[in-house]
Amino acid sequence: MSKQQLSRNNKITHLIAEYLRIRARSTALCERLEVEDYTVQPIADVSPPKWHLGHTTWFFEEVILVKHMVDYSRYHQGYRTLFNSYYKSAGAHWLQSQRGELSRPTVSEIMSYRNYVDKQLVNFLSTAEVDSAILSLLEIGLHHEQQHQELLLMDIKYILGCNPLSPTYFESSLDNTHIETAPWRSFDEGMYEIGATDSSFAYDNEKPKHKSYNYAFAMSEQLVTNGEYLDFIQDGGYDRAELWLSLGWDWSNDNKIGHPLYWQKIDNEWYEFTLHGLMPLALNLPVTHISYFEADAFANWKGKRLPTEQELEVYLSASSDLERISNIKTQSAKSADIFHPTSSDMPFGQVWCWSKSHYSGYPGYKPYQGMLNEYNGKFMCNQFVLRGGCVATPSDHYRHSYRNFFAPHQRWMFSGIRLAKDI
Amino acid sequence: MSKQQLSRNNKITHLIAEYLRIRARSTALCERLEVEDYTVQPIADVSPPKWHLGHTTWFFEEVILVKHMVDYSRYHQGYRTLFNSYYKSAGAHWLQSQRGELSRPTVSEIMSYRNYVDKQLVNFLSTAEVDSAILSLLEIGLHHEQQHQELLLMDIKYILGCNPLSPTYFESSLDNTHIETAPWRSFDEGMYEIGATDSSFAYDNEKPKHKSYNYAFAMSEQLVTNGEYLDFIQDGGYDRAELWLSLGWDWSNDNKIGHPLYWQKIDNEWYEFTLHGLMPLALNLPVTHISYFEADAFANWKGKRLPTEQELEVYLSASSDLERISNIKTQSAKSADIFHPTSSDMPFGQVWCWSKSHYSGYPGYKPYQGMLNEYNGKFMCNQFVLRGGCVATPSDHYRHSYRNFFAPHQRWMFSGIRLAKDI
Amino acid sequence: MSKQQLSRNNKITHLIAEYLRIRARSTALCERLEVEDYTVQPIADVSPPKWHLGHTTWFFEEVILVKHMVDYSRYHQGYRTLFNSYYKSAGAHWLQSQRGELSRPTVSEIMSYRNYVDKQLVNFLSTAEVDSAILSLLEIGLHHEQQHQELLLMDIKYILGCNPLSPTYFESSLDNTHIETAPWRSFDEGMYEIGATDSSFAYDNEKPKHKSYNYAFAMSEQLVTNGEYLDFIQDGGYDRAELWLSLGWDWSNDNKIGHPLYWQKIDNEWYEFTLHGLMPLALNLPVTHISYFEADAFANWKGKRLPTEQELEVYLSASSDLERISNIKTQSAKSADIFHPTSSDMPFGQVWCWSKSHYSGYPGYKPYQGMLNEYNGKFMCNQFVLRGGCVATPSDHYRHSYRNFFAPHQRWMFSGIRLAKDI
Amino acid sequence: MSKQQLSRNNKITHLIAEYLRIRARSTALCERLEVEDYTVQPIADVSPPKWHLGHTTWFFEEVILVKHMVDYSRYHQGYRTLFNSYYKSAGAHWLQSQRGELSRPTVSEIMSYRNYVDKQLVNFLSTAEVDSAILSLLEIGLHHEQQHQELLLMDIKYILGCNPLSPTYFESSLDNTHIETAPWRSFDEGMYEIGATDSSFAYDNEKPKHKSYNYAFAMSEQLVTNGEYLDFIQDGGYDRAELWLSLGWDWSNDNKIGHPLYWQKIDNEWYEFTLHGLMPLALNLPVTHISYFEADAFANWKGKRLPTEQELEVYLSASSDLERISNIKTQSAKSADIFHPTSSDMPFGQVWCWSKSHYSGYPGYKPYQGMLNEYNGKFMCNQFVLRGGCVATPSDHYRHSYRNFFAPHQRWMFSGIRLAKDI
């Protein structure tokens, strides 16, 4: 066996292990659910957890097995349509807003589907001639599955949180780590490099690495806290049109929005629903589950502004000094099983920070070819970029160049605010 | 023990037995479901089966136990709202259209709720001084539960039928019984008595018995069949505005309606989804799952008309001659486990027949008092009456005076057509 | 010239005069409008006045001239579609809800259209062989035009009334005639004749005359007044679910209804917008512009009920004793130019009274043939009958057998309440 | 009189002349309308022309007279609300979507309102101490009025164009000027200056002038023509999901979009509705009235891309060489009365070119203070920037730094496509 073959075999062995580890985490995240929790779709944005388990499986089947494995036969013809999210080039797809109408396939049938595809894929990787293009698709598939792990947590939280019985995902107390930091960190005017290189995995939308000229700015070292946000509310923030974008004002009035998604006022006290139960509002934890509209209104009220995505990337990259990282690692080891932000001082990994940047292709952007052409580019309209990862983001899935994106009214993700200002 | 006491005790013993029998049938109807099937709500009209199981329990709790049992304590405070369907006088109620958003309480928790209330109610009936007003509420509660048994079958059918995988409730072949009958049965002009007396159970909306002057008419002895309805389709019935009510024309165009709810065309052949599987369309079985709009358009196409509800009641009452009844009994013994019409010749018990009568109070109508005031009267607007029962109606729940009612666009119930004509 | 010919010629001469008189009234009703008032459509139900002027003209063109006049050429090909209201058999029609989108044809062009058709029609009647079928269509056309005269007043009122500047149609003071009457008039149980004969003009939906068995009832001799309705409001009528139909409760909550359509509260005083200006609410005038939902809730609050349409027809027919008629005539001479009810004591001609009867075909109902088949029958769904005429109804258009009909939420017509009760 | 006073007086005299000239043009643009054309609002985006005439007047009244003129009394209290477009800080405003519901005030009343305000304003300018802050507001007011002149033409076109009678604004033949140009113009990578300085009038959103680093690109010297766009349609452009943004695909399917807004196919020939009548589609004129979604799909089909707004500004500024300007001037002299693009070769002034840039504040952006704070900033969400002006833009209102913006589905403005590519 040549060295090259050996190295290749090692790489494949490693990828299989990664595949099994990541796939197992998806089902593990659901272990605390009742069958009924897997099934419902309270709003169009929130998919039934069982759908996520099916769709991520479909992704590997459709992108790798069907196209590249000789004599592969699909687990079920009907799943081709049912678990296609939106890929027009992969044929018809079931409407997103109607995922919760389907009681079948059952959770148990979907688990069988997962097992079938896992077995086939491992078999395929172990035995077939797998070229680098396929390995690249596999890598994307794994990152895709991790994206859905975050979505699973978001959707589970919504499903439990909209229930008047306020069921708990699992009980746990929330520690609150506070590290004293300087309030603002300054950055000079000048040319910066933005985006990812090809040296390690990144999505097409993070490339190419390119120059961006930024004016001098300062970034807050602290995430906006529940306490600060409560001040905004108590100062009439939701009633002062001058603070709001025009669309945001209409949105908050039409939907009678007066506080972050999971806040509840009970007997005149504020509580926050978390995956770990309904808890008294912790004033020094980061505010989360807010829309772009709310983030922007808050920034206006504060006399500051939201950062651009370039500024956030510059800030995040600069934040990765060793001492901080070691703090964060300690933190994240601990938070492995906590799905709620516990610190307003950390530069990343707590809440996705809204940027004021519209989600658009970088200069020279080249979308994936084939079916995955639809992965990112077609959503570059009416969405804003968020940066920095959150407690629900798998830590080995996160990168500083990562561009998350949502419509300005959405807030069921773990979104938050980091303020910037001109200097 | 006096004779009166003895008779009273016997009556209570009998009612307890009835209660347990009827309650058990509700859960028995669900035994063939997967947990996921209990949970979803594909359209607002169709409630999750688990909601029906909770709501019928709530009804006994709210109407009897909470009001009449000393020291009764509710199973769960939250259920008061969650399982209230629409009774404003019973406090807040969860929105009908959002029943499918709730994964909790689980099926298993609802079964515990049923057990708790059953135990309490049996205990209450066995030991407390139960007056006739309470027994009357109990009787209504049992009929209410039986109404929901029909709704359960309708909703289960919709949940399975809207699923592209076409799951089967349970497999069974459908016999087709055909009895030769005269095509039309005539009735003279004159005064008829319509409605129910107090001699046995009937809802408030079936009373009082009253005089109604009817002109001479003839009623078809045959239900309209799938074959006849197919002729209507093939003759362009859905494309000819002159056959349709104005609202019906808009409805069929806006919703792209071109056939009964559960018909499917596969490879140019017609199939019908039933609770017993997807089957080739049986041309001589009664057409079912059609709206008032379709029934009315069909009647116009045929040059006939829909009957009034008075005409249907006159016809149904006249149909109960002994020989026919014995046929029907044989039939219904057999059909105990078949939830699809098997004969177009039977006068009742196959499909609910649309009448052209708007649902309204009879002359001298007195609604129930108290919370049950909301049982019938408040729905007397924009609905049409259907008569004759269907295969999903519990046979001991059915009466010729029974007035079912639905909005003219609805068709997920087992509705069909019996034509009438002036003579 | 034979006698028959003479009589025929006289009849035609008379019809031409009637035609010109009635046509002139339509434009006369609009003389007080600004061009802008002719053009807008604030809600789908309310058509621009210029559309009414065009449509009534189209009716004569389409039903008579195009079909029966040799060599007739349409005034404008485009009007065939633009002024067709809903007759599917007459080809395409412009959507009702989009009539207000069209600035053209202008008012002045529509006036030319009217002149053209009038000239052609008079010429046709004067010179052609006009058979009785055509004369019958002409008669329908004239009644159709008179129906639209009432609609014009309703629509003009809405257009002015929804304007925050509250423009006045024309100024006039409203007298208030009060005749003392017995409060209730009783009718015996028994068989009554309902409907119109062929002896004089009536629409198809008023026929055939037929027997109807009514139970004993009493009808209020007084229309419900603004004062009584205000009591209902002040007693929390709009907030008490138990008084309302289920659909009505949803309607009033969804639309935040808390008073009749044209009432306004200014500086804590009630006013009513009328065609003669905004006036302080006159407590002893009949309440008007209320929906079926409101009328039904009011009746429930009062412990009475709405009458059936048969009861109203019996009452109206019985009310035509000579003395009363002479009163009414005096009244109506005076009210020729007043388009607001001025008396709660008159049996008819003030406000259309809601009946609890669904609009449906009478026993033996035969709709018109041809295009006019769509005149009445296709609307027999989800509407309630109103009886008795109103101040906007041309007096020579009114009959006791007249069946007006509206959906239960509509209230821009001059609708009101006359209560009934069982005796 | 000091020199300074003299210069100031001259400046005021000049501004008064400008004011009268610009105000007169607004009414002149409407002279060809019928009264009915001033009044309707076929879709929410399109305001009745009379509303524009009122609103622009309200702007001067509200921003200058009410705040700065001693003893000024409003023309009509009700107009304060009726003609407020969306300024929350100026109190309540009539809903945009309901402007077409109002027949009053009439056109003639609005003309009186204009005259009143004009007289007062001229008087105020001539006699009061008018400081530079007020002059600055006046300047904004004049540009605001010019913006509405373009809107007037857009809205008039829509009102006439949606009418099935296709009325003509005024007749005129469209010349087609074709100048041979090189197909692409290249620009080097490097730092560019973007935005307006304070040396002449510009809106707040065009400032501050700032550095932007652009990669090398080439801009097409030709606007995309109707002929090229027709090729896109005939190549199935509207049916190929892979060319479309996700939101765009849904938009085009939901609204059954298959061609630019004003194209019509009659007897298999393409026509285009213009303000000068319905004309056979001119293949070498610029395509116009297309949405961002369509522009983006076209660019994808062509294998090119839409430019950024920075690239467009760089291109426009570079295009202003003398020879070209003289061509353009000749052209624009001629086109003074033509409101349809006549050349695909001109760098600006033909159709607004969609950029791929989201409408956002420039680095260091400072919005106006006071009521005009709402002029631009609050719309910086879900809109895209267009550059280059169009035939409906007053030529003295246009600047290369001008940022027009619309939502990606809108297309009733004179929008078009100029392609870019990376080099």
Automatic annotation (TrEMBL), chains A, B, C, D:
Residues 189-320 form the Sulfatase-modifying factor enzyme-like domain. The keyword Ligase does not apply. Residues 21-151 form the DinB-like domain. The keyword DNA-binding does not apply. InterPro entries: CTDL_fold, DinB-like, EgtB, Sulfatase_Mod_Factor_Kinase, SUMF_dom, SUMF_sf. Keywords: Iron, Oxidoreductase. Pathway: Amino-acid biosynthesis; ergothioneine biosynthesis. NCBIfam families: egtB_TIGR03440. This is Ergothioneine biosynthesis protein EgtB. The gene is egtB.
